[in-house]
Hints:
Elements lengths: L1 H33 L26 H7 L13 E6 L5 E4 L1 H6 L8 E4 L6 H16 L2 E7 L5 H6 L3 E4 L22 H24 L5 H17 L5 H9 L14 H15 L1 H4 L20 E5 L10 H14 L9 E6 L2 H4 L2 H12 L1 H4 L1 E7 L3 H4 L7 H11 L3 E4 L7 H8 L3 H6 L7 E6 L2 E7 L3 H7 L3 H7 L1
Parallel strand pairs: 3-8, 3-9, 4-6, 4-7, 5-6, 7-8
Antiparallel strand pairs: 1-2, 1-11, 9-10, 10-11
Amino acid sequence: AAERDLLRGARQHGAATAAARRAAAAEEERIRRAISAAGEQRPHALRNRRRFTIPTHRATTRNLGGVYLFQAEGGLGADGMLIGTEVYTSGSFFFDPWVLYEAGVLTNPNIFLVGEIGSGKSALFKSMVIRARACGGHRAYVPGDVKGEWTPLVQALGGAVIAVGPGLPNRINPLDEGLRPAGLSDQDWAREVRAHRLELLRSLAEWLGRRALAPTEHTALAIALDTAAENNTVPLLPHVVSLLFAPDQSRPLQLGFDSHDRLRDAGHELGHLLGVMVSGELAGMFDQPSTVAFNPALPAMSVDISRLGESNPAMPLVMTCASSWMEAAVRDPGGGRRFMVYDEAWRIMRELPLLRRMQSQWKLARGLGISNVAIMHRYSDGSAVGDAGSEQRALAEGLIADTATRIIYRQKADQIRTTAAVVGLNSEEAGMLPGLDRGIGLWRVGNRSFVVKNHLTDAELALTDTDQRMHAERQ
């Protein structure tokens, strides 16, 4: 009986609730018909023949920047070259590493640019080179053009392209002394040239031998270089190799060697290693006097090494020799503002001896007025080299950390974690990388972030499009 009473009560309550809802709906309908859309005819009824709207909030951009936080950056100013537009503000985006360095925004003028194939990274920096020349008269040098993609641009700017490779007539002597900076004494200049040459030879020997040189080998190499420099106006690699196999008997022995035979034994293996440059597949490229001269007055120069082939295992070696030759020619701090572009930089960063040279060049950037630019597909190509805790890993990570401007174009999902860790991206910045459209990149300028779309003119597009062959085939 009690259960029946509960059920009866519940049904009655439900019926009462339904009746109340019907009554409320009927009352609303009666009011709607009785009162016009303009409102009731009584004081303070907000009667209005038009639809009532709340006015939008109006204020200056200065005030709105404080009210609506973190919507968009304030920009870097209007000094420098126009890159394109900021995606979130539609405002113009200007950039110049030297201007920002002088303003204290950047700690150095170096740049790292990464992006997967087809993302527009190459077009971005090529357009920057064009505009930097037009806006500030800056020059650009490409010491190792692996694919020959920079040739049309360099020629259009009135620069010089030096093609080096099997069967080509050009020769580059990586032991050229380069251009002497003004005001440098003879003694200081000789010391600087010797250090540059010795560093190159050591890097080549360590790369070829896949090991560090022994102390006696260091000494033997230095003696061979010094002897070659004394006996020749400009030393060549064959001179050094010959002296490693057969040291000059008339030269006094250096401390640590009690006979010329001991000196010869110390340099014997080095002679075989460096002999690859003289009699191996690279013979005729870097073992003769230079047939071309570096012209600092030209707006741009590149060394085209595409004839060698991208898959050639000696490509890092060739890039290093070409880079050393060009780096020796830009050591004058009075040479103006210059971009030194290391395209396909991952090829060098994967080799410890060559990576050491690259790091030393990075550290010289501020003093020489050079902006070193490394272009790669992804950060893992450089940051993940070597074993964890190894010198190579530390050098690669340090090189990226010492670069004040990092530009990131589209990245695949499996690269996001590495990229975020290396660059220091937050979750929002990292999450946008896989979805970036072509020509849009995330710029980390110091500790500030911008999402920028690079706009190209028709003339620039013709010079920067790396897919010209594909377009031609479709046409």
